[in-house]
Design a protein that fits this description.
Strand order of the largest sheet: 2-1-3-4-5
Number of strands: 11
CATH superfamily of the largest domain: Response regulator
CATH class of the largest domain: Alpha Beta
Order of helices and strands: EHEHHEHEHEHEEEEHHHEE
Strand content: 15-25%
Number of helices: 9
Keywords: DNA-binding, Transcription, Transcription regulation
Helix content: 40-55%
Shape: globular
Low-confidence stretches: none
Radius of gyration: 18 Å
Structural class: alpha/beta
CATH architecture of the largest domain: 3-Layer(aba) Sandwich
Mean pLDDT: 88
InterPro entries: CheY-like_superfamily (IPR011006), OmpR/PhoB-type_DNA-bd (IPR001867), Sig_transdc_resp-reg_C-effctor (IPR016032), Sig_transdc_resp-reg_receiver (IPR001789), WalR-like (IPR039420), WH-like_DNA-bd_sf (IPR036388)
GO biological process, one term: regulation of DNA-templated transcription
GO cellular component, one term: cytosol
Number of domains: 2
GO molecular function, one term: transcription cis-regulatory region binding
Largest sheet: 5 strands, parallel
């Protein structure tokens, strides 16, 4: 889930729409609302954040450290104009990258992927037994053959592989895929997506790599 912080609704709405086209959850906040939310949000909600995009707002140098006090996601500042003084000030405030608008959401996702590989040692691809799972938008492969998946199922698979060996709750998966404040989608839809994904994996692999326990959640074995 990507979080966009900007005083202008036009900016937050535009980027949310762009991420949605890529099948990626995003939500937008005005600065004060972001401060209140991230200060009080539950850990599962905060853990779903993939990056914080910091746009135009007053006193924005205070927000990078606020975000990092709750999560390890990168903070990317988006500037309307080139300004060396402004860029240096933002890096001093704790941002991980500074970009110039307009910037496509695909480039933002690529930059976040590069940050994760550098700091979290995350690869673009993971091989597990006969499976090869990509984290750059490509469908997974089983024994060298591409397994075509709807983008929500692919995102769920990627999220579960990222967290393999750990139990994840339905709410965590929902927040990562749909966003915390997506009131138009019922959280129960996650169960439907996972059921379809498990059936496809079972058909191709001959076994189910996703373990499910009531009240405990799901785990990619």
């Amino acid at each position: 889930m990507y979080v966009i912080v900007d005083d202008r609704d036009l900016v937050t709405t535009g980027y949310r729409t762009g991420f949605d086209r890529e099948g990626v959850a995003a939500m937008g906040f005005k600065p004060g609302d972001f401060h209140d939310w991230i200060s009080a949000a539950d850990d599962p909600d905060v853990s779903a954040i993939e990056a914080v995009l910091l746009g135009d707002c007053a006193e924005r140098e205070r927000y990078p450290r606020l975000a990092k006090s709750r999560c390890q996601a990168p903070v990317i500042a988006m500037n309307d104009t080139n300004s060396l003084e402004q860029t240096l000030g933002l890096f001093a405030a704790g941002v991980d990258d500074v970009v110039r608008k307009p910037i496509h959401v695909k480039e933002i996702m690529a930059r976040v992927g590069a940050f994760n590989r550098r700091t979290l040692e995350r690869a673009e691809m993971c091989e597990i037994d006969e499976m090869r799972i990509y984290f750059d938008g490509r469908d997974p492969e089983i024994r060298g053959e591409t397994l075509m998946l709807p983008r929500r199922e692919r995102r769920i698979l990627e999220y579960m592989v990222r967290n393999r060996g750990k139990r994840v709750q339905r709410a965590q998966i929902f927040n990562a895929i749909y966003g915390v404040f997506n009131e138009n989608v019922d959280e129960c839809v996650v169960e439907s997506h996972i059921s379809k994904l498990r059936k496809k994996l079972r058909t191709e692999l001959g076994y189910d790599p996703i373990d499910s326990k009531r009240y405990l959640g799901y785990m990619f074995r």
